[in-house]
Amino acid sequence: xxxxxxxxxxxxxxxxxxxxxxxxxxxxxxxxxxxxxxxxxxxxxxxxxxxxxxxxxxxxxxxxxxxxxxxxxxxxxxxxxxxxxxxxxxxxxxxxxxxxxxxxxxxxxxxxxxxxxxxxxxxxxxxxxxxxxxxxxxxxxxxxxxxxxxxxxxxxxxxxxxxxxxxxxxxxxxxxxxxxxxxxxxxxxxxxxxxxxxxxxxxxxxxxxxxxxxxxxxxxxxxxxxxxxxxxxxxxxxxxxxxxxxxxxxxxxxxxxxxxxxxxxxxxxxxxxxxxxxxxxxxxxxxxxxxxxxxxxxxxxxxxxxxxxxxxxxxxxxxxxxxxxxxxxxxxxxxxxxxxxxxxxxxxxxxxxxxxxxx
Length: 359
What we know:
Elements: E1 26-27, E2 30-31, H1 38-68, H2 73-100, H3 106-140, H4 142-148, H5 151-168, E3 177-181, E4 184-188, H6 194-231, H7 236-239, H8 243-270, H9 278-296, H10 298-309, H11 311-322, H12 330-345, H13 352-356
Antiparallel strand pairs: 1-2, 3-4
């Protein structure tokens, strides 16, 4: 987590990010001062992501629970993806304040905030994978999918995903806590001892690269390559059925892959595989902070993708809006209804299985 500055102590001022450590990176016996860049832009970005992401994902929950009523594995997966996004969003107000100041929320909130961050992070990745498997079954193994792509199977699969996400959040969850240094308080997910810190933190980064990028990319890549091969034998309208999950998947990995690359470089630095020069360390740290902020943006993008890409989602949203008595939403009702009618007219000939996989 964040590092502090104390001319007489171990701590050093660095810009904040969830990946920043409470232990300064020591190069040739000297502390490398990373500066305070993040304290200027992270609070603004985190506040913006919180407002947009919270409203958007709550809209997704409202539509799925009230409109779609969770009839399929797709509905359950999208619901849980929104919940995973909300877990990350929950941490943003605290991290926005922490980016400018010391940790003032106490040990209990430190543990809670970082716990939901790590669990939400891995859950979001794994639910993207689950949605890709869902697409693969629906299109490549359609007959088998009719039996397995049910609400019950979706709930069971989601429970497994949450258990895996919690397990993947270790060892970070073991080290959650606060450290005090004079008037400064730091919330951290790593040991404060320099040697232990470097080992645990680099191992956590390598784990994130494997569980958060390499394995998911392999599974998603296989699923969608098989889907594309299958689509070559199907009519054009069928191809529209996977565009939502495809775009959601692409946006997610475009947001998170840069962060994984930066984390990999930082892990190499912590292991002293990369040349430990202060300027290089500063560049990697800044890259880590910028790409981490970029990664948070995906929590805001998914709800908009559901509205503008998912025909079924827009239809449910329009239906719910038409049932809302508020005068203030009349204009929104009209616009959404018009867009839904236009999009829906292009898909009315699709069979039930094709409609079921559009969300």
